[in-house]
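[Discussion] Sanity-checking designs against the backbone

I'm trying to build intuition for which residues belong where. Below is a structure token string of 64 positions. I'd appreciate it if someone posts a full sequence so I can compare it with mine line by line.
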């Protein structure tokens, strides 16, 4: 699984960090980012739900 965050689209709503806190966090400005070492999704079943929860569709999840 590969996770990409379009930082140009992200508005910092934080839905991803609330939905999958083991994979996503927010930077100092409130924008979404992946936790270190979680670029592969860490096998979390909530990653796809976090992508769906994003109000601006800034998160893309793809199978490798």
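Best answer:
Here's mine. Compare freely.
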């Amino acid at each position: 699984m590969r996770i990409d965050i379009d930082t140009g689209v992200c508005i910092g709503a934080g839905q991803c960090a609330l939905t999958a806190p083991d994979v996503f966090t927010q930077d100092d400005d409130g924008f979404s980012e992946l936790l270190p070492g979680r670029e592969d999704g860490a096998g979390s079943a909530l990653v796809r739900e976090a992508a769906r929860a994003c109000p601006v569709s800034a998160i893309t999840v793809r199978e490798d």
